[in-house]
Amino acid sequence: MSGVSGFVSSEKPIEVVGGEGVHLTAADGTEYLDVGASYACAPLGHCPPDVVEAVVEQARELLYVQGSYPVGARAAVHERLAALAPGDVDRVWLANSGAEAVEAALKFARSATGGTKFVAAQRAFHGRTMGALSVTWKPTYREPFEPLPETEFVPYGDADALADAVDEDVAAVVLEPVQGEGGANVPPEGYLRAARDAADAAGAALVLDEIQTGLGRTGTLWACERAGVVPDVLTTAKGLASGLPMSAALCADWIADAAGPHGSTFSGNPVVAAAANATLETLVAEDLPARAAETGAYLRSELTDAGFSVRGAGLLVGVEVDSATRTLRRLALDHQVLALPAGRRVLRLLPPLTVEKRHVDEVVAALSAVAEVPA
């Protein structure tokens, strides 16, 4: 098996050579049920035919041209995202990764507000580039690269602590509507509304990171819709182009008009834009957010009935186990089920939104066979 590029290898002991729907195929022919969807990057499943066809057609016509030239596929992504945006955050900036979208959001917020620091949540993950890292909580990610832009971290879900931290020096409050890597944590009712109010009172921007929660994952197209809150900037990525590299920062006018200079060479690459257009069209046409809500409720119910402590929303589900590492390995090697960690004692399930109840039954049976529930 070939090695992973980079300084540190985190290579899994399974070489993947193909994928279709909710399954991945290894080099030895073994088929795995993928309920991690590569960190939610495959909302339609692997190699969805309409996306593949759109990519092939665009690749035959034009692989790339710089962003200052109008291109139909790129313009269509702007139009689709603007039409699908919650509220008035319909000014669209395209980039290539979730971290880049967060970088743009932080820069835009500082430029628009004049603030110099940020408020974020404990256990938050927003990316590993320098700006995004400044609002990412985990010390092992941050400490080798400090000093970083000033950020105050407050307990996730504690509205009073959040309000106390937001003053006139804050450029943005940056939150995940549901925390992903931090443990599939759902905030208490009213928390995002309190964050909206705190940001408004201080003249700060509210940035909601929907890189993992957006595009139907939690049962609505955007997780913030569940709380009835519209941010000033919403970031999205992961499954936006079915795993090809695309992200976006959706901005309110007051942010976009004062955003300051920013650019990206590969922003809105035509081939990736074609994939995004096909992905978004399918998400809406097949009402996959509603399907995620229904199947996710079934998944959480079945896991609860099996004796697990479960949290999450839609098809972003956290399951408490004695050891995430041990459980993940046994799921993969003994039952051909692929999942993700969300801390040392939490499994994260992020299956494609096309997952069926029969697949849910397989997952619950496999977990019941291998997982040790914490005492």
List keywords for this structure.
Aspartate Aminotransferase, domain 1, Aspartate Aminotransferase, domain 2, 4-stranded mixed sheet, 15 strands, globular
Description:
The chain is α/β, with parallel strands linked by helices. It is built from 14 helices and 15 strands. The strands form three sheets. Strands 4-10-9-8-7-5-6 form a seven-stranded mixed beta sheet, with helices on both faces. Strand 11 (310-313) and strand 12 form a beta hairpin. Helix 2 (49-61) packs antiparallel against helix 11 (270-285) and helix 12 packs parallel to helix 14 (357-370). The protein is globular and about 55 Å long.
Distance between the termini: 39 Å
The CATH class of the largest domain turns out to be Alpha Beta
- Looking at the structure, the CATH topology of the largest domain is Aspartate Aminotransferase, domain 2
Q: Biggest sheet: strands, sense, closure?
A: 7 strands, mixed
Residues in helix, %: 25-40%
Order of helices and strands: EEEHHHEHEHHEHEHEHEEHHHEEHEEEH
User: Approximately what portion of the residues adopt beta-strand conformation?
Assistant: 15-25%
CATH H-level name of the largest domain... which superfamily? Type I PLP-dependent aspartate aminotransferase-like (Major domain)
Which runs of at least 5 residues are low in confidence (pLDDT < 50)?
none
Residue-averaged pLDDT, rounded? Answer: 95
